[in-house]
Write a structure and sequence with these properties.
By secondary structure, this protein is an alpha/beta fold. The protein is built from four helices and five strands.
Length: 132
């Protein structure tokens, strides 16, 4: 990959964060980690813009998940959000602004990697993809 894309990964479980960081970094992505809502908002305010946000809706937040997603979308309307959760917890997140897809958490992250690659292709169509 000639261009390094940034994945912002927000998950309440540090073991999940580290596992997904290894897996996604192995695909050539730059991975930035957040363990709670306030840290996520601070990262988005300070860091280079992320290309995709992978969000555990159970992340601790002073706002609550629906309000956090609405705030994220208002501040970063071009940031695609992947809800990464256990399906019974999915709620109505798929209908929220900015949410592109809801995925079930699994040890096999193949689908997550595929969805991230598709979102980057969708949001960066001018990028030359033949060398990926």
């Amino acid at each position: 990959m000639d261009q390094e894309f940034t994945i912002l990964l927000a998950d309440r479980n540090r073991h999940v964060r580290k596992y997904l960081e290894r897996e996604l970094a192995g695909e050539g992505y730059r991975v930035v980690l957040a363990g709670e809502g306030r840290g996520l908002l601070e990262l988005l305010a300070c860091e280079e813009p992320a290309d995709v946000l992978v969000l555990d809706p159970d992340i601790p937040s002073y706002l609550g998940t629906p309000e956090l997603i609405k705030l994220l979308h208002r501040r970063h309307p071009a940031l695609p959000i992947v809800i990464h959760t256990f399906l019974p917890d999915e709620g109505n997140y798929a209908e929220m602004p900015g949410v592109e897809v809801c995925l079930e958490k699994s040890e096999d992250v193949t689908l997550l990697k595929k969805v991230i690659a598709e979102l980057i292709h969708k949001y960066y169509p001018a990028y030359h993809w033949s060398n990926i």
